[in-house]
TrEMBL record:
Its main location: membrane. Keywords: Cell membrane, Membrane, Transmembrane, Transmembrane helix. This is ABC transporter permease. One of its GO terms (cellular component) is plasma membrane. It is found in: Cell membrane. The chain crosses the membrane at residues 7-25, 31-51, 63-81, 101-120, 127-150, 170-191, 224-242, 262-286, 298-320. It is a multi-pass membrane protein. The keyword Ion transport does not apply. InterPro entries: ABC_transp_permease (IPR001851), LivM-like (IPR043428). One of its GO terms (molecular function) is branched-chain amino acid transmembrane transporter activity. It comes from Ruegeria profundi.
C-alpha cells in the first residue's frame, strides 16, 4: 500500500505535536529534549535541502553556518551573563539574552559568510565543489579550536537558556514549541520556494545550466542566492542547537556534522518536503536507542543508509509513497 505524500507529511506534523504532549502528560522531559534535538537537526537539514535537493549542490561544509549560528548565540550570551562588552575593534556592543536578536545576528552572519564562500566555491562543480566546501569547514573548525577567548577546544558554556518574550524557555515543552514553530515556518518557505519561478529555475540550472543561460538567466546568481538562503537557515538551527545544549564547541564546525546533515536528507528523501524531518527523527531514534546498546551504533545507521541507497532512491519518503526523489 502506497501513501499519499501529503498524508505522510500531515502524519509527521501530527506526530511531532503528539509525542511531546504525551511526554508532558507522562512527565518525561527527556523525551521532549530528544524530539527537540530532532526538530533542530531537521531545520538545519531543510536549509541544506534547498541547495542539495533543488539545486543539486553537495556541500560538505554546511556545518560552517551551523557553527556560526552556535557561536553567535554563545558569544552574545556569554557577554550578557558576564556583563562585559563585546569589542569589535571600531566599536563595542553589549551582549544579549534575547532569542530573536540572537537569531537575527546568527542568520545575518551566516548569510554574509555564505556569500563569500559561495562566490568562491560555486566557480567549481562536482567533486571540486565538495572539496572546497569541506576545506572551508575545516578552516572554521581549526579557527574555533584556536579561539582561546571563547574556550578554544573546550568550548563555551552558557549558564541559563536565553529569553523569549512571554515564554519560559527553561521549560522543555515551551522551548520545543519555539523550535517546532520555526521548523513549520521554514518548511512552508521551502515548499513555496520549490514551487516558485526561482525554485523552478534553480532546478533547471541543476539539470542543464546552458539552457538556463539561453533564456536570459544567470545560473551562478541563482545558485548563490540559494546558497545564501540555505546558509542563513542553517545558522538559525545552529543558534537553537547551542541554546538547547547551553554549550558551543568547535565540533559544531566539524565535517562529520556536515556529513550527518547529508545523511539525514538521503534517509528521508532528497528534495522532499518532509525528507529532512523523517531523516532527523530516524537518526535521533537510532542514536538514542541503539546508542544504549553499543557505542558502534553507526554501523546500523550505515546499514540503513546502504539499503536506502540501493533500494529506495527517494529515501523513506519514496519507499512509502512510491515516488523517487531528486537525482543529484
Amino acid at each position: 500500500m502506497r501513501l499519499n505524500e501529503r498524508y505522510l507529511n500531515a502524519v509527521m506534523i501530527v506526530g511531532l505535536l503528539a509525542l511531546p504532549l504525551w511526554a508532558v502528560v507522562a512527565d518525561q522531559p527527556f523525551t521532549i529534549t530528544l524530539v527537540t534535538r530532532a526538530v533542530i537537526l531537521a531545520l538545519a537539514a531543510v536549509g541544506l535541502n534547498i541547495i542539495l535537493g533543488i539545486g543539486g549542490m553537495v556541500s560538505f561544509g554546511h556545518a560552517v553556518f551551523f557553527g556560526i549560528g552556535g557561536y553567535a548565540m554563545g558569544i552574545l550570551a556569554y557577554h550578557a551573563q558576564t556583563y562585559t562588552a563585546l569589542d569589535l575593534g571600531l566599536f563595542s556592543m553589549d551582549g544579549t539574552k534575547s532569542m530573536p536578536m540572537i537569531w537575527l545576528v546568527a542568520m545575518i552572519l551566516s548569510a554574509i559568510v555564505a556569500v563569500f564562500i559561495g562566490l568562491l566555491s560555486l566557480r567549481t562543480s562536482g567533486v571540486y565543489f565538495i572539496m572546497i566546501t569541506l576545506a572551508f569547514g575545516q578552516m572554521f573548525f581549526y579557527f574555533a579550536i584556536s579561539w582561546a577567548q571563547y574556550g578554544g577546544e573546550d568550548g563555551l558554556s552558557i549558564y541559563v537558556r536565553n529569553d523569549f518574550p512571554g515564554l519560559n524557555t527553561l521549560a522543555p515543552i515551551q522551548f520545543y514549541t519555539i523550535c517546532f514553530t520555526l521548523l513549520c515556518v521554514v518548511l512552508f518557505l521551502f515548499a513555496r520556494l520549490q514551487a516558485s519561478p526561482f525554485g523552478l529555475a534553480l532546478n533547471a540550472a541543476r539539470q542543464t545550466s546552458v539552457r538556463v543561460e539561453t533564456v536570459g538567466l544567470n545560473p551562478m546568481q541563482l545558485k548563490l542566492l540559494a546558497f545564501v538562503i540555505s546558509g542563513a537557515i542553517t545558522g538559525l538551527a545552529g543558534a537553537l542547537f547551542a541554546d538547547l545544549n547551553r554549550f558551543v564547541s568547535p565540533t559544531m564546525f566539524s565535517w562529520q556534522l556536515s556529513g550527518e546533515l547529508i545523511v539525514l536528507i538521503i534517509i528521508g528523501g532528497v528534495g522532499r518536503l518532509m525528507g529532512p524531518v523523517i531523516g532527523a527523527c530516524v537518526f535521533v531514534a537510532l542514536e538514542h536507542f541503539l546508542g544504549e546498546l553499543t557505542d558502534f551504533w553507526h554501523v546500523y545507521l550505515g546499514l540503513v543508509l546502504l539499503c536506502i541507497v540501493l533500494f529506495g532512491r527517494g529515501g523513506l519518503t519514496g519507499l512509502l509513497t512510491g515516488k523517487e526523489g531528486a537525482h543529484v
